[in-house]
Write a structure and sequence with these properties.
Layout (H helix, E strand, L loop, with lengths): L2 H22 L4 H6 L1 H18 L4 H4 L7 H14 L5 H27 L1
Length: 115
């Protein structure tokens, strides 16, 4: 895959990660759990991230075995095909714990392409 296409995918992933941060800015866990609008907005961004992650080349994803690429895509599938079955507590934990390291990887890869 051409480097420019990978960069575009990474930039879109970063945009969705930043959207999630914006959606959750100054939002408590309780507010998140009771706000259908925020849960849906976050879920859509997670769906986008999963869809985009499927397009990343193995040469990139295999460099980061600690990133749960299969789970990221799996979350996309669960969101797309069964939103009401998602546990909002799990979504909250993903957004507040798991995405931090993922965002660092995405930012680093964008930086590497820009060199």
């Amino acid at each position: 895959m051409k480097e420019q296409k990978v960069k575009i995918i990474l930039l879109h992933i970063m945009e969705d990660l930043q959207d999630i941060e914006l959606f959750l800015q100054n939002i408590s866990k309780e507010e998140f759990l009771t706000s259908s609008m925020i849960k849906k907005a976050v879920s859509m961004s997670l769906l986008n991230i999963g869809e985009l992650s499927k397009e990343l080349p193995a040469a990139l994803t295999t460099k980061y075995p600690d990133i749960p690429w299969v789970s990221i895509v799996g979350l996309r599938n669960r969101t797309a095909h069964g939103y009401h079955g998602l546990d909002p507590e799990i979504i909250w934990n993903i957004c507040n714990k798991d995405l931090k390291e993922f965002e660092k990887v995405i930012a680093y890869e964008i930086q590497q392409i820009n060199k």
